[in-house]
Amino acid sequence: MKAGLLTFYHLHHYGAILQAAATQRALETLGWECETIDYFVNQDTRIFRPAASPSLAASDAYNALHYPAVRRRWQRFEDFSRSFLRLTDRRYESREELRRAELPYDLLVSGSDQIWNPTIFPDRRFDPVFFGAFSPLRKIAYAPSFGVARLPEGMEEELKGYLEGFSHLSVREVSGREIVREASGREAAVVLDPTLLLTAAEWSALAADPALREKEYILCYGISRSGALEPYIRRLAEETELPVVQLCGTRRKLHPKARMISDAGPAEFLGLFQRAAYVCTNSFHGTVFSVLFQRPFFTAVAPAELQEPERSRTFSLLSRLGLTERVVGKGDAAGLRDRPDWAAAEVRLAAARAGAMAYLKAALADEPYQGTEAALPREDGPLLADRTHCTGCSACAAACPKDAIALVRDREGFAFPQVDLEKCVRCGICTRTCPMLQEREPRPLPAAFAAWNREADIRRDSSSGGAFSALADYVLEGGGVVFGAALDGKQHLRHTACFRKEDLWRLRGAKYVQSDLEGVFREVRKCLETRQVLFSGTPCQVDGLYRYLGRRPENLTTCDLVCHGVPSPGVWEDMARYIEKKRGRELQTVRFRNKVEGWKNSHFTAVYDDGTVDTHPLYETEYGRAFGRALFLRPCCHRCPYACMNRPGDFTLGDLWGLRPDELPEQQQLGVSLLLVNTPHGSHIFGQLPLNCRPFPVERAIAGNPRLASPTVQPADRAAFFAAYALEPFDQVARKFCALPPLPVRAAGKVLSPEAKAKVKKVLKRG
Questions:
Q1: Which of 245, 263, 417, 674 could form a Cys-Cys staple with 654, CB 3.0–4.6 A?
Q2: Contact at 8 Å (CB) between 242 and 275?
Q3: What is the pLDDT of residues 320-342, one digit of tens each?
Q4: Closest by alpha carbon to 84, among 206, 186, 2?
Q5: What is the pTM of this model?
Q6: Residue 526 is inside which H or E element, if any?
Q7: Which helix (H) or strand (E) holds 179?
Q8: Nearest to 618 by CA among 633, 643, 634, 599
């Protein structure tokens, strides 16, 4: 039996050619003859190409300067193809040529790599050839990738038509399975990348000695800017005193003393990984071969993959193997010298490999495949929200009847639930309490108001219009208690109970850091037994309280905030120590949004223990600048389900941004609150509040406060910040990531148009 393989191999890319060789060998082990169809499209492997763009001109210039090494690399790829790939006798350059050809195959295999990615072809459409849409032969798919988390709009029907010709479907990533399901209604097996079907011993037989003078080395292989890998490379080099060898990939040095390897072909690529002491990579196949050769490695992924790991090919693989802690720039990343658990990973890899081969065997024989992905072995603990969804609301810990859950800070400085399995009785209460695991009921649109406090002193002491104080006064006057966030003497933000108006000042004002809720929900429940309670917090905290209580008590009033996202408590506390160190005195209190120059020019004001005061515009301070860029928000904030008009609180409070100059002109300097009334209970109380109010269009409230419509976008350098934060002294991290740009850059920023800024950023990224 003979199969024709449709895949990428021409492009002189290590992963492409090695996966093609691995697919061919896997079919041969199952008794099939396999031939790679030499279809050449959109793949120019010439050393010098027409300089149609500045980047191609730069590439040609580099190749000319390093011609001997570049030429050796080119020849080594060609030699590897001839030695280890069985190709068709002729090259095909179009679908029509293939349609007319008399192909000697029993079936066609759409192989791995991003052959089903519509965005990489010149017309940004699917290439029908890679779906075998030139032949009536039976077709199967082994591990193709779409290369995108979601299809471009309007392409589902086209994909559905192409998939109808397949008797068996598989994909490389979980996201691919979802794309297939949504487009065609069919289920696709998620199988391993073909390179993982071969063992380390089999790959070693294809490896060539890279002929390095270094016996031990740190191997760096980056296909893009190093970003989050930089501190790992630097610290590994410092602590191990090993030389750094960089395999190009990217031609920018990832370490100032790196030895650049420009002439490695696929066999030398294997040899470099096989002999490395450590590997730092942002390549998927760099990760794969680190795993296969069991090299201690760190890998970086794109920001979108960190935000949605369920749609990432790297996370898809490492989750299967129990090695996700090797991904840098997140809170559960491994320590610098931590060793992977290779024994456990090998067991998981062997099981995944067996499942993938079982699929391939069934597909080749045209037999039903009933296999399912093997469930990941895990400790017998409760189901809780994963790290990209967990808000840290503490509801699970508060609800646990055995006190088996504690909130513990990770490497990013955020608290996550940690379960003591010896105490846990598997009752499931925490799972049923977790807001992220429950459906939220939709609500009608709230009523929106512009609001401001009638007392000038209170309004002056508030971040916006002082609406919170009016609500708090109402509850306190009725003998109730108010729970809100307050900083202590060490600048730790914690929710606390306020019983007197005189103490309410501690709860006023914006605090740009996530508050500590340890023990607070239980305290709220106890207070509810005897009095009214007002709880103010972020939407996730308010929803967490309701889930913990299991009801909406009549004597509980809640106020959620229009939330930009919550910054790391660990980062803020380190920033506070950094400020103290620079000034040589201790902080007594901080105002994140002080109206010393009016509502629209908020100041960051620091008061020290000797009575001295610093005050600067918020976004001209290191912390304010980084907060404005959303540099260190909690992971879940970038996919927040509460960034919408379906609010959990009775009230929502924020700043009424977006007022025109002619609207409430006499009030704008003093501050105006946006007040949303979300529930009948809130409406009942609203009519009794001593506030000046004006109705305001909901659509304009959303326009002025985008977080009422969508979450804050994750910045590209978030992972780089937290990778550095995990390894380096904070003062170095702050200087690198939080400092103001040089004066010429700031001046340019004020005069350049948004379009010009975008072009400059694009050029800098290419560099």
A1: 674
A2: no
A3: 999 999 999 999 999 999 999 99
A4: 206
A5: 0.90
A6: helix 520-528
A7: helix 174-184
A8: 599
